[in-house]
Design a protein that fits this description.
Length: 544
């Protein structure tokens, strides 16, 4: 009597109709409403839906009937990636808040997403929108129940030191003369984040129906989990105190002290610290700071957090790490923004630790075993190790610490990302959620090393290996069934660390020999030039 209903078709049509309707409504309000359209839910959704719709049509229409092996396919797809990324960036800037946070996340995933998207979104780390000072004052007054900001701060600089997706920071002075940095949450960002997350989830599912290979629910799930944590400034203060205790063995690490009397869920007051951004080579050269020392110290503190303690600061972009010099303590690395931390389970941490040890030892069977232990499909583990190290399989299989990374290798990796995007998406959906933030952290640290020109330094690999050896040894000691087994573990650990020290000494001797040879060649060249000049002068005298 009735024809069978194609529910998949109905569902797709409904999603498309909802997206088009919301897009139209959003466009209308953004053009004709006198209200602040950015705070109107349907407008925000309409902007995002319109952008998603235009991007989807662009891909479908431009690549229609083309095959991957066609002559201009790769070039055309790169152009579509670029203009689609620009549309996405513009939506993030206009909607602000959570949208900028997601855009920054995308901008930190080098080697995991197409380079056009990563490069376009990186601008969001530098140019996040700011909130007018009157609204900042209003937030402070609401949080501390005062009539004037001057009741708390004797001075409050109206120009922000920096702005991020969820908050901005101002320099201020307490009434006792203490200089502080005050982090103030953007107004209404907490109110809007729940709505924003729902619309992102809807749009990602809608796009996935049109493009089955587009599997980015992991990004939505991570954002839904992390945003509430980053909006809780009391929790951020507690994270800062905890990591300060964990890293107290490193005299060069500085975590600003929290002023709890002037801290709430939306306002965080902390010690004011000066310094240049960790990727600012000009600042380091001007202040006599060794970039190699900075890179090694950064690697040491992050290896300690990841492999030994399993408590990781997961937002190490350059604006959150400052460097300076202290007259008494020398180099100081200031760690800021403690809203986002990842706590690793012991099982995950040790698997991850053993995986990196296998990578550094070029142990292919170990890489496979521990990759699968982290939930990666048996066929995709080589790709997973390439994603982890940001190196080609040729380098990974022969030992990444034996061959320095080159610009050609970087180019090869970035060109392959688009081809392997479905497999990369599959891995990101397979691995434990703990892994996703580590991917982001690794990529940001690598980009800092790239700017400082210290990437693939052998010293950083040795630091990682030492931490891996210590972490595995601690686990073995805990699992020892008798007191007599522990000395064997201690001796084995001491032997492994001794081997690493000897290897480091060999590297130093090799570097020193090369340095001596280079200096010798330069001196010989100078000597020959001087002799040549003297001979020339003598010839002129004879001729005269």
């Amino acid at each position: 009597m009735f024809a069978a209903v194609n529910w998949n078709g109905v569902r797709r049509s409904s999603l498309l109709l909802a997206a088009v309707g919301s897009a139209g409504l959003g466009y209308y309000y953004s053009k004709h409403s006198s209200l602040d359209a950015s705070e109107f839910g349907p407008v925000r959704f309409g902007r995002a839906a319109l952008a998603a719709l235009v991007i989807a049509i662009d891909y479908k229409k431009s690549l229609h009937r083309l095959q991957e092996n066609d002559e201009f396919y790769a070039e055309l797809k790169s152009k579509i990636h670029l203009r689609s990324a620009a549309r996405l960036r513009d939506v993030c800037c206009r909607n602000g808040g959570v949208f900028i946070k997601v855009g920054q996340y995308i901008g930190s995933l080098d080697y995991l997403l197409p380079d056009e998207y990563v490069r376009t979104m990186k601008v969001l780390h530098r140019n996040a929108p700011t909130t007018p000072i009157a609204q900042i004052h209003q937030t402070i007054k609401e949080e501390f129940h005062v009539k004037q900001v001057s009741e708390i701060f004797s001075e409050f600089d109206p120009t922000p030191l920096g702005a991020a997706s969820l908050a901005q920071v101002h320099r201020a002075t307490l009434h006792d003369g203490t200089e502080v940095a005050v982090k103030v949450q953007h107004p209404r960002v907490k109110h809007l984040c729940n709505v924003d997350m729902l619309m992102m989830e809807f749009l990602v599912k809608a796009v996935a129906m049109l493009f089955p290979d587009f599997r980015f629910m992991w990004l939505v799930e991570e954002t839904k989990k992390n945003i509430p944590l980053e909006l809780d400034f009391v929790g951020e203060g507690k994270n800062a105190e905890r990591v300060s205790k964990i890293l107290k063995q490193f005299p060069y690490v500085k975590v600003p002290e929290i002023h709890w009397k002037y801290t709430t869920c939306r306002v965080l007051t902390m010690e004011y610290c000066e310094g240049g951004k960790v990727d600012d080579r000009g600042y380091m050269n001007q202040h006599g700071i060794d970039v190699n020392q900075v890179s090694r110290c950064l690697g040491r503190m992050y290896s300690e957090m990841i492999f030994v303690h399993g408590y990781v600061h997961c937002d190490p972009h350059p604006g959150n790490i400052l460097v300076n010099t202290d007259p008494d303590r020398g180099l100081q690395i200031v760690l800021l923004d403690h809203g986002l931390y990842q706590t690793l389970t012991d099982e995950f941490r040790l698997n991850y630790c053993r995986l990196w040890k296998s990578v550094l030892d070029a142990d292919v069977s170990g890489m496979k075993q521990y990759s699968m232990g982290l939930g990666v499909d048996g066929r995709l583990w080589p790709l997973f190790t390439c994603m982890l190290t940001a190196r080609t399989w040729e380098s990974v299989s022969t030992g990444i610490n034996r061959k320095s990374v080159t610009s050609d290798e970087d180019d090869v990796l970035k060109s392959r990302v688009t081809s392997y995007l479905p497999q990369i998406s599959s891995i990101l959906n397979q691995v434990p959620r703990q892994m996703l933030l580590l991917f982001k952290t690794n990529e940001i640290l690598r980009s800092i090393e790239h700017v400082l020109a210290t990437r693939a330094d052998s010293g950083s690999f040795l630091v990682m290996l030492r931490c891996c050896v210590r972490a595995v040894a601690r686990d073995r000691v805990v699992k020892c069934r008798s007191v007599f087994q522990r000395p064997a573990v201690y001796i084995g650990t001491a032997y492994s660390l001794c081997k690493l020290s000897l290897y480091e000494l060999c590297l130093w001797c090799q570097t020193f020999t090369i340095y001596k040879q280079t200096i010798g060649k330069l001196l010989s060249k100078c000597y020959r030039n001087v002799r040549k000049s003297e001979t020339s002068d003598l010839s002129e005298v004879v001729l005269l």
